[in-house]
Amino acid sequence: MRIPAHSVCTAIRDDIVAGVYERGSRLTEELLARRYGVSRVPVREALRTLEAEGFVVTRRHAGACVAEPTEQEAADLLEMRLLLEPLGASRAAQRRTEAHLKVLRGLVRLGQERARRGSSDDLRSLGGWFHETLAQASGSHALTSTLTQLRHKIAWMYSVEAPANPADTWAEHGAIVDAVARGDGERARAVTALHTERSTGAHRLRFSGGGDRQDRVRTSQHPVNMSGPRH
């Protein structure tokens, strides 16, 4: 059975984000094919996709390598997020379905419950699902895919400090959902802009300068997902 390239792409991207492959390290097709138990064909396709996304670069005499983004490139990602997250919320207020609202409200309830219990690990996952669902509710595939890629790259370049008061964060999520449910695009945009700006202050760059090139590869914790792409 031929494993689709998008599954291989997801696995490699997840490992880059998790730091399994160091910035600047080589990504040889043969090594990747063995690591993920696939042929070199889907690996080659996956590397082309990851290069287009900015996770991989092709260097003369070295081939595919993990990209080494600059501090300015990393800062640009946060600025793009500040612009696009509010846009997505505004679009969601006009285009969301009842199914989207049901999921968003359920996530807010769970988030508020976990915040009261102090379950920080659960809160991070729930926050990610919340913003993914909000983006999907925008009804724009281009905007959703751009925001998803931004989240992947920001997670790769930044560590995020847990909020001092997670209940406040989930109150903001609740306010976003209320505006979306009412179809109030301007309110959804404004509340999301404030929420995104506040959360930006918790991001800490994982690197400085150009970074050191290393060919060390840690043990992968992410096997290829056979069920399809993850959004």
Automatic annotation (TrEMBL):
The keyword Transcription regulation applies. Transmembrane segments: none annotated. Keywords: DNA-binding, Transcription, Transcription regulation. Residues 201-231 are annotated as: Disordered. InterPro entries: GntR_C, TF_FadR/GntR_C, Tscrpt_reg_HTH_GntR, WH-like_DNA-bd_sf, WH_DNA-bd_sf. It holds the Pfam family GntR. The keyword Thylakoid does not apply. Residues 2-69 form the HTH gntR-type domain. This is GntR family transcriptional regulator. It comes from Streptomyces galbus. The lineage of its organism: Bacteria, Bacillati, Actinomycetota, Actinomycetes, Kitasatosporales.
